[in-house]
């Protein structure tokens, strides 16, 4: 009896393992079909994008892709008279899979420029391959600090954000506006830890005190115990880093446990992002969040972007849509300033790093030292408007620049 | 002291939630000897159907609470009649393969129908709001779940121990052939048990989703928790599942409170210890080999 149950459970475990492998194998023949058609013509510029279209980050990958396509569409898939061809590969946010796909893009498709990566682990995994092959790579989401620090490469530039930018920008603001005692709760993975430690560093430098820290595992389903502990502390506010389903549960449970009336909740923009707020409902009201873009940013570029996106896809853009849109724009401007000649990777990088423009997020420029975007950060407050929640900009922190070390 | 009491209530409510999620799996495994790895999927379908009902059709949580489990029951009925029946002669491996394959099929279907965004179900007005206990605020819904867990447990205990049905089930558990010889349609009993397991999974889905939310991969997370409870509690015993759920709920809650970094380790540690100390689980019975 004992043996058979053990065997049964072992078999079940083995099956789960097998199916995990099988799952990634099944996706092999994914999205490259549209790339095959016109592959050998010389006057096309090939851009490879590694994005997750399956797995946990699938919706982020889809939004990035939608944003990119929207911009390429707006220039008629052409730059400097050359046709642009986008070849997308599904990484499923798996570093090994991403490495295989990157090699495929380089060896079979001969892409000129690479972009994408949602998961930081993926960006780290392909880093050496990109570096040694001198493939220009524009990182368009993955925010791990090290990519533009210890792992910096001549060929890697980042247009999205770094963990440091997200966390650090809110430290002084929190001290000035929330109070001098804050509790930190962040999902227990590299990104959560990096963002919250950047916040703590800035908050303590401003004079505040961190009264407690807790790091629930990623994909945690019940925050009751943590919330009871937090409510027992003397904190004026909670700085929370959670994303996706974790954010929905944390924010809802924060309200249900009556903490909302007692203390402020603040965190990164992913806590109240465009695609989550409908699920969160009114519990999101009153949260302060730091982000480099918001749907309600009032500038001409953003209005144009939001209108075009909604017309094309019939839904609101997310911050990932914006990242894709900007990445596509940077690539187009790079190609234009090179007059369509992308054969020399060093020249591509030089041209890319010089790109400056007015993005829907505000002024956009690269830091030549760190290869990292210099951008405004915005502190948002979530408010109720006509029965649904909206984010409103309450403060702009200009030109936040990653220290690069 | 007040914090301890508050955490105790948290743990109890989480434990009861686990029980509601697990009892269907325990019932099916305990009685039919079928390890239904699609149990999490049935739970998930319950959640998503309830989501559709509460947001698009009737806007009523109570309708969802009745309809969603029935939808899942129909799916369970189809699975048992068309696919699972064939495997009873073939043993555990084919059942595990089949149900795990089904889990993937359901995973893709659900994503196709409802997309991959995070969704959530609102707590009905009657049960929303908070209650003050031991100097802490508790969501009323969490306290209601404790009650629901107790009622479900009592109901299953009554069914298994006090009714003719229970007698047949218990007899079937120890000697399947004998039951057949007594002129009872054992096939029908099996179908009924599997459908009941489905109803419980669907019910669990509706009850849990206001707290746990709906998102891709929710079914595998639930399945792992359910398997842990099943192993700790022992097979074929509703009382064991109940005890294990409460134990895991309390341990996880206090683990998070006292050693937040170790909470997952504590659960698996407990499971390992119990497997060494009582290989059949806390209150496990012998299960007939299929």
What is the strand and helix layout of this fold?
The complex is a heterodimer of chains A (405) and B (290).
Chain A: H1 2-26, H2 33-36, E1 44-51, H3 58-74, E2 78-79, E3 82-90, H4 95-107, E4 113-116, H5 120-132, E5 137-139, E6 156-158, H6 163-168, H7 171-177, E7 181-186, H8 190-206, E8 209-214, H9 224-231, E9 237-241, H10 244-256, E10 264-268, H11 277-280, E11 288-291, H12 300-313, H13 319-337, H14 345-353, E12 357-359, E13 362-367, E14 372-385, E15 388-400
Chain B: H1 2-32, H2 39-57, H3 61-87, H4 92-114, E1 130-133, E2 136-139, H5 140-162, H6 164-174, H7 176-181, H8 186-212, H9 218-233, H10 238-258, H11 263-277
Antiparallel strand pairs in B: 1-2
Provide a descriptive summary of the structure in words.
The complex is a heterodimer of chains A (405) and B (290). Chain A is α/β, with parallel strands linked by helices. Chain A folds into 2 domains: 29-161 and 300-371, Rossmann fold (3-Layer(aba) Sandwich), CATH 3.40.50.2300; 165-291 and 377-400, Rossmann fold (3-Layer(aba) Sandwich), CATH 3.40.50. Chain A has helices spanning 2-26, 33-36, 58-74, 95-107, 120-132, 163-168, 171-177, 190-206, 224-231, 244-256, 277-280, 300-313, 319-337, 345-353, and strands at residues 44-51, 78-79, 82-90, 113-116, 137-139, 156-158, 181-186, 209-214, 237-241, 264-268, 288-291, 357-359, 362-367, 372-385, 388-400. In chain A, the strands form 2 sheets. In chain A, strands 7, 8, 9, 10, 11, 12, 13, 14 and 15 form a 9-stranded mixed beta sheet that branches. A 6-stranded mixed beta sheet of chain A has the order 2-3-1-4-5-6, sandwiched between helices. Chain A is globular and about 65 Å long. The termini of chain A are far apart. Chain B has one domain (2-219). Chain B contains 11 helices and 2 strands. In chain B, strand 1 (130-133) and strand 2 form a beta hairpin. The model of chain B has no long low-confidence stretch (mean pLDDT 89).
